[in-house]
């Protein structure tokens, strides 16, 4: 018996996962949801949504100073997105692993971005801060980068009552 390995309620995290407009347009909604569902995380919120510019700016406010920021806002508001809240122990980091590296070219096979996205080579921009050539492209999905941001983003994208608390029937088959 290893008490330090036992998950408590405090270990349960929430993450905001969003299928970006390219994922919706390319018909990848089912495929992407399936990956999180099969893994065993709990879906607590789900909707198709046309994101207003102000919300996209608030969501990505940490990237405001980046040269690609205007393109990013255009991209995220260019069509409907699928907003999701997922819950589980370690869900934030695990979802980031399932999603893969920011640039699909660097994302490992088996990850969502590695399997479902390319880097076309068009729309290149230079990130002056990192003094690197940064490809701006489509990478089909977003995932929160910390438990704090998971909570912040879910509160931003979902209204009161849109996130459901429930117990999946499979729960006793996933953890003891
Ligand atoms: N992005 C990009 N080029 C970059 C950095 C970011 O096109 O050099 C876009 C991309 O869509 C990315 C989003 O901006 O998913 C947010 O950037 P972040 O660094 O937070 O990457 P993520 O957390 O999505 O992997
Ligand atoms: Mg990010």
From TrEMBL:
Catalytic activity: a 2'-deoxyribonucleoside 5'-diphosphate + ATP = a 2'-deoxyribonucleoside 5'-triphosphate + ADP; a ribonucleoside 5'-diphosphate + ATP = a ribonucleoside 5'-triphosphate + ADP
Annotated ATP binding sites: 20, 68, 96, 102, 113, 139
Chain ranges of the Nucleoside diphosphate kinase-like domain: 12-165
Keywords: ATP-binding, Kinase, Nucleotide-binding, Transferase
Cofactor(s) recorded in Swiss-Prot or TrEMBL: Mg(2+)
Top-level EC class: transferase
Example of a GO MF term: nucleoside diphosphate kinase activity
Its biological purpose: Major role in the synthesis of nucleoside triphosphates other than ATP. The ATP gamma phosphate is transferred to the NDP beta phosphate via a ping-pong mechanism, using a phosphorylated active-site intermediate.
Family: Belongs to the NDK family.
Record-given protein name: Nucleoside diphosphate kinase
Species of origin: Buddleja alternifolia
Residues included from the entire protein: 74 to 249 of 249
């Amino acid at each position: 018996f290893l008490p330090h390995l036992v998950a408590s309620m405090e270990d349960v995290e929430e993450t905001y996962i969003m299928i970006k407009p390219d994922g919706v347009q390319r018909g990848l909604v089912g495929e992407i949801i399936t990956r999180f569902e099969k893994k065993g995380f709990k879906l607590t919120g789900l909707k198709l949504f046309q994101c207003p510019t102000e919300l996209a700016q608030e969501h990505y406010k940490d990237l405001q100073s980046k040269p690609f920021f205007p393109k990013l806002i255009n991209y995220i508001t260019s069509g409907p997105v699928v907003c999701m809240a997922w819950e589980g122990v370690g869900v934030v980091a695990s979802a980031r692993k399932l999603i893969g590296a920011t640039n699909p070219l660097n994302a490992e096979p088996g990850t969502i971005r590695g399997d479902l996205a390319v880097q076309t080579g068009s729309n290149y921009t230079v990130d002056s801060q990192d003094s690197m050539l940064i490809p701006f492209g489509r990478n089909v999905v977003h995932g929160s980068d910390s438990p704090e941001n998971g909570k912040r983003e879910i509160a931003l994208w979902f209204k009161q009552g849109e996130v459901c608390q429930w117990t999946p029937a499979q729960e006793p088959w996933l953890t003891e």
